[in-house]
Structure formats: C-alpha cells, structure tokens
C-alpha cells in the first residue's frame, strides 16, 4: 500500500481533533456554528436546529416546595424562564430539598453503601419532557442561585408522548462531571459540551449533587437544542477525540452504558488454567477481603477469568451490602434473576431509582425478595414507581427482620397499601416522604405496632389530614423516636406538639419547616424547648411567629443544638441570637434568611464573634 494513505489518515485525524477542540472552547456565538463546523465542506443538506424549553416535568426525587403549590417546586422547570438573568432566592424556581452536607451530620443520617463507584455521585434528579424528539446538539441550564449542582445530563430513547411503549428503553449520558465548587452564587447559563448520541430524544434527565454548595441551588429553565435528522460527520466515527476515551470507559464501566451488565451476571464458559497463579496460595478470607473493594460490574468481569475467582465473586458474602442505584438505568428483571443466587445472605439492599418504565415488574421484584429477603435489614426503594400494594405485601411477608425501609417519593403506591407496613414490628427507620399515606388505619396501625421506631419521615405527605392525631399516637407509642420529619405538614397545632414533646423526649431532630398552623403565642415552641433538651437539629423554617422568647428558651434548655433554621421570622432580634450562640457551643448551622431584623451587618458581626457557625442569609436581587 502506498505510504501516502497512512499520512492522509493521520492528517485527517489531526484536523478532526482540532475541530473538536475548537468547538469545545468556543464562545456561545461560536457554539451556534458548531454543527456547520462538524459538517465541514461536504455540502451536506442543512439540518435546521430546533430550540425548545421543557414542556413538562415528568419525575423528580425531591423538592423544597409543596405538593399543592408552585413555589420552589420542580414544576417551575417547565416552560420559559421566570427569573433568569436575575440572581437570588426566588420562589418561581426549582429547588431540591437539601444542600451541603448538613443532612449527613444529623441524627437521622444514614450510613452510606460501600462499593459505590467513584463516578456515581448523584443525590437527586429531575426528568423533563420536550415537545419534539431531536438529536441533541446542546443543553442550556439556567441556574439563578448557587450554581454548580448539576453533575450528569442523560437522554432517553423513550418518547413520553408516544402511544406505543418501546420494546427497549435506553439511557445515554450526554455529559457528566464530578461536583465542583462554584465560588459565586450569581446566575449563569450552564452549557456543557455534550456527547452526540445515535437516537432522537425528547426526555432529558438532570442529576445533581449539592454537597459542595453553600446554600440551595435554584434552577429556572432548561433549553434543548437539537436537529431532527441525525448529524453526519464527514470523518468516520472511529476517529474519536482521544480526550473522550477516559470518559467513555467510565461510562461503559459504571454508568448507563453498561449494556453488558446483565450478560456479566450469567457465566456460560470459564477458561481452564493449569493453576490459578498465586491466588491458590492465599487464604480464602484474604481473597474475599481483596474482592470486597470491587464494584458490582468489576466482580462480574472478574468472575469470567477462572473457576477460582468465579467461586469467590459469586460467594453470597460478597453481596451482604448491595447498592444497585448507580446502575439504575440498566437494572431490570433479568438483572435481579441473575443476582438471586448471590444475594441469599443480603442484609442491605438499595434499589432506589431503579425499575421505572417497566424495567422491573411486580413479579420480578417479588421473586427476588422471596429468595433474598429473609436476612434483609435495610431496604432502600426511593422513587420506585413500579411499587404497588402487592410489593409492600411481599416485603412485609418475606423480610421479617427488616429494620429500615425507605419509600421516599414512591408516589404510585395507593393509600391502603401502607397497612402492610404495620406487620413489620422490628422497624426502626421509616421514610414516607412524598407518599400517599393517610391517617386512616394505615399510619395509626404503623405507629401502634412499630414501637421500635427511632427515625420517621412524614414530610410532604399531603393526604394526612390530622397531624395532631398522629402526633398524639407518636407520643403514646413511639417512645424511642430520635428524629421526626414533619416538613410541610399542613395542620399540626400546639395540641399535637404538646403530646409529641411529652411522649417523645428522646427526640434529637425535629423538622417543623413550613408548618403554617403553629403559632408561637400558644407557647408551642417554648414547650418544645423545655421538654426536648436533647435537640440537635430544629427547623422552624418560614414560621413568621418565632420570636425572641422562643430563641431564649432554646438557649436555656437546648444547649446541644447544632442546626437551627428560623428563615422568615420578623420577631427575632440580634440580641437573642447572640444569647443562643453563646449558650449553644456546638451550633454549626443557623439560617436567618429573610429575617427582617437580621441584616447583613448583623450577620457579619455574628460571624466575627462566632467564626465556627455558618450563618445563612440568602438574598433576592
């Protein structure tokens, strides 16, 4: 072959890499011409770019707002911007429930799962539907306050508006990056360089990690740019920018590109080796310890090398704690079936975010638990929209040792299904945030029969109509309660608070944020302070009636306090806050946003006197 051809190939690859780098470093004006650059001089037909805002918010894991309003809810991401380019704390934006690491430092904090791949750091997500399926060319995210939370952008092959469900649902990562610290809280348009995919999409998913943020991130709108016809590059697809190689490998290994995961669970043939190297000389327990540091995909790969390692990789002791959440996009009935023989001793299982859009069936989930549920102590099922009453019935029958159950944002479970949970008398932690649980017989039965409860979340449970009755039952039956989340409960009064404080005196964490029916004038907050001396976290967010007397009572009685949120009160003075800070030596978080008597000058003075306390004061520009 002539030496000219290899030289042409090298030059072509160099030219293509230059174009890719130019597109990556371009300004916004230059980005608009990126499609023309990549199409270059081949006289391809012009593919008109479509620009569209999100039409609808389909799903999300949490939000700061209420289920019955638009303020601070994920639904604000639909449509055109409400706030951008303004910066600050605005109710018309989308806000997730948490920020920073404060929720990881509370009595209610859960231990993390080991073996979570380093490339998976997502904490929350939101899924957005757009009108027209397109091949994405750009995604713009309008962040209006404390930007930098978005860590992954994904595209789905399923059209949410199609009448015919697809035979296969594919998710592809358009962009991903580790959490980064953005120094300025000001608004910005975030436009990462996204990967080209081989299918049109009108379903985009944002995943966020807010652990490095100083305050709540606020998102205003998402803009999808794309073309109707698949873009054609003049150079062959095999000529890849070498800078993308590591990212693609990570995606194949850990992310939504794990197409081979299910195949790896099933080992058909194993290589025959005369010896197994030095592994034959190592104690079985030592090999097990070494393998305990591998992720699930790595275990599956290693199992295909030889019979010895296959035996180790399939040992149920390797699957005592198993989190499948990082692989949510690829977990289905087949995955669970292959895992059954390995998970007979499993104690912790995380299936959060998995199984949606038909990936996991009720029968598939039930079969798995019937084989693997007997030793389960902890079960995480957050955002599991496949769950129904049959699933809860199977959980309570097959998991007699269950102590922790997380059903956060499982909003498809019907109210009557929660009756089954009362059968699990060993429960110590129950998360029902954003579910349809009702007072009726379900919740009262749970509180009556699950007397070992230590951590209970009923935040944003809009179908509970009598929180006073619930508080009374908790005070009578749940004497071991250490943390209670009543975020946005709409009707608790001083009567319920009195019953709760009298009966649950071990409480260390109490969230009464956005509970409008509580009034300081009734003495409810004073009563809390006097009856609950072990309080470490107290959220009284957006209660306008909190006053100096309440703060002084906390200073006198709750000296172990670490986190206090009194956002929005007009009745608290700098003097009472100073008393609190002097008495509560362990206080590390104090939110005084929108407290009219606490201006920026006061915050600066308190910061100077108490440098170990993070005093939060949001702003609206």
From TrEMBL:
Which InterPro entries does the annotation name? Answer: F-box-like_dom_sf, F-box_dom, FBXL15_LRR, Leu-rich_rpt_Cys-con_subtyp, LRR_dom_sf
Q: Which SUPFAM superfamilies match?
A: F-box domain, RNI-like
Protein name (record): FBXL4 protein
Task: Give the GO biological process terms.
Answer: SCF-dependent proteasomal ubiquitin-dependent protein catabolic process
Cite the PANTHER family for this sequence: F-BOX_LRR-REPEAT PROTEIN 4 (PTHR13318:SF152), PARTNER OF PAIRED, ISOFORM B-RELATED (PTHR13318)
Q: Does the keyword Cell cycle apply?
A: no
A single GO cellular-component term from the record reads: SCF ubiquitin ligase complex
